[in-house]
Specification:
With 493 residues, the chain is α/β, with parallel strands linked by helices. 26% of the residues lie in helices and 24% in strands. Helix 7 packs parallel to helix 8 (249-260).
């Protein structure tokens, strides 16, 4: 089989762009992505200006070259959640000098914007580890150091961009046996050195398999006790656990399923080896794999060999389609989320506590809205990479990513708070289960007090944000495109 097929050059692809055009780029490579940097470098070399990037999230690896491209007029529009140094640039108002205000949105919101034409993309770029001559792609074959797992987040770009271009490390001489995105959706394939660095993908919020601390272990135990009390994990159930420490609940859910002989219909979301173990043990019928959250060989082998392990697009996961057909998230029984902070009104903030952008929106709003029971995994204190501390349960969050009306229960190391406005059918069972299960129900306001005390006792508390101007630097949308938070420039820190 000839490997020439859809091969092209990045120069030829970028040559299509005119001032005012947009490119798109999915975020599943995280800090291990190398493709976007090459694209921006080539835009500079080609003298391109006034280009927009429709992303989803921008991580620490975009520093300093993405800001420099904005400064120099190469990039003039930016959609997506800015993490790390780029987030600091945003909050200081550095991008305002060049007329750029960023917008963060949940996964389904990105699809909605493309689908309804709110954002028009000239070229959609899709990084993958391998392609064949027909343009078929996947993220589980090729160079072992460049594997990223599923690439369903890129299906949106493949479906709605005017032109599509894959960036791959390996061109297969034979047709791919496993296809993540079919070649009929791909116009061109560019081979580049190391588009994805596997070792840097499972970082930050995906580091959920690390050893739990004592407080996190208590939270996991309490969540499992609530699951037992409610019988929400039962034959035919459907659940999703979020990124971060919430992933640690997976192994314990499997133990419950094995002891009770339970077989779930579906598990969805960022999939880890623990989910694959559920499938192999016959405790779940189908894995709906939207992102890859751990990168063991067993995860890739399961994707390749097990017909009940299904790679899905973000559209199927999170965006209800016209005609009443529902997306998967609307069918969830249980959703487990984490976040940067939560407040006395149960509003969840996963983006910007105390004026510092540390995360994005992700799929949390969809999970919270769709699940019959939404539980939030919440330690009392956050400890930053610089060993600075802050309370995670506060009077009022700095901004909202999931409105409190969609959060049913907050689980902490010192108690479980139930939202008095919750409409979950499982609340009565949670209240009744307190007598015979290892958790205690407390008022959310007492958790606010105790969280503040714990942060003070830990010391080195993160200082307040200082002066906040009235200049909007970042907006956060809900799944329907409504602005639910606006972040203002921080003039002093």
């Amino acid at each position: 089989m000839s490997t020439k097929g859809k091969l092209t050059s990045l120069i030829a692809v970028l040559g299509r762009l005119q001032p005012g055009d947009n490119i798109s780029y999915p975020h599943y490579g995280r800090t291990g992505d190398m493709g976007l940097r090459l694209i921006v470098k080539m835009l500079r070399l080609l003298g391109k200006t006034d280009i927009g990037i429709f992303g989803n999230a921008f991580f620490a690896n975009v520093e300093p070259w993405l800001f420099e491209a904005i400064r120099d007029g190469i990039i003039t529009r930016l959609w997506g959640n800015p993490y790390g140094p780029l987030g600091a640039h945003v909050m200081r108002g550095d991008l305002l000098k060049y007329g750029v205000v960023t917008t963060g949105f949940p996964h389904g919101g990105r699809i909605r914007m493309l689908k309804n034409g709110e954002v028009k993309v000239k070229i959609g770029f899709i990084p993958a580890s391998i392609a064949d001559a027909d343009g078929n792609l996947n993220g589980i074959d090729g160079d072992p150091n460049e594997l990223c797992g599923v690439i369903g987040l890129g299906m949106t770009d493949a479906d709605y961009a005017e032109h599509t271009c894959a960036l791959v490390g390996v061109m297969s001489p034979e047709p791919l046996q496993y296809v993540g995105i079919p070649g009929e959706k791909i116009d061109g394939v560019v081979i580049m050195d190391c588009p994805l660095m596997r070792e840097y993908i499972a970082t930050g919020s995906l580091a959920g398999t690390k050893k739990l601390g004592p407080e996190e272990h208590i939270i996991v135990v309490s969540m499992i006790e609530i699951i037992k009390a409610t019988d929400i994990i039962q034959n035919g159930c459907f659940f999703q656990t979020g990124s971060g420490a919430g992933l640690a609940v997976n192994e314990h859910i499997l133990e419950v399923m094995e002891k009770r002989g339970i077989v779930a219909d579906y598990v969805m979301g960022g999939i880890t080896k623990a989910n694959v173990d559920m499938l192999k043990a016959g405790r779940v019928r189908t894995l709906l794999h939207g992102q890859t959250f751990s990168f063991e060989p067993e995860v890739f082998a399961s994707l390749r060999d097990d017909g009940n392990h299904v790679e899905i697009s973000t559209e199927h996961a999170y965006l209800a389609r016209p005609g009443g057909e529902s997306c998967y998230s609307r069918l969830l029984d249980l959703g487990i989320l984490t976040g940067a902070e939560i407040d006395a009104h149960f509003n969840l903030n996963s983006t910007c506590p105390n004026g510092r952008i540390v995360g994005g929106v992700g799929g949390a709003p969809h999970v919270a809205q769709g699940a019959d029971l939404c539980m939030v995994f919440m330690p009392l204190v956050n400890v930053s990479s610089k060993n600075r501390t802050s309370a995670k349960i506060v009077d009022q969050v700095f901004c909202t990513t999931v409105p409190g009306k969609f959060v049913d229960v907050v689980v902490t190391p010192i108690g479980v708070a139930i939202n008095p406005e919750s409409k979950s059918p499982y609340i009565d069972a949670i209240r009744a289960g307190e007598k015979n299960h290892d958790y205690n129900i407390v008022d959310i306001h007492s958790l606010v007090v105790e969280s503040g005390k714990a942060a003070d006792e830990a010391g080195n508390v993160i200082p307040s944000v200082g002066t906040v101007s009235g200049k909007i630097v970042h907006r956060i949308q809900d799944p329907d495109g409504n602005i639910i938070s606006e972040l203002s420039q921080i003039e002093t820190v």
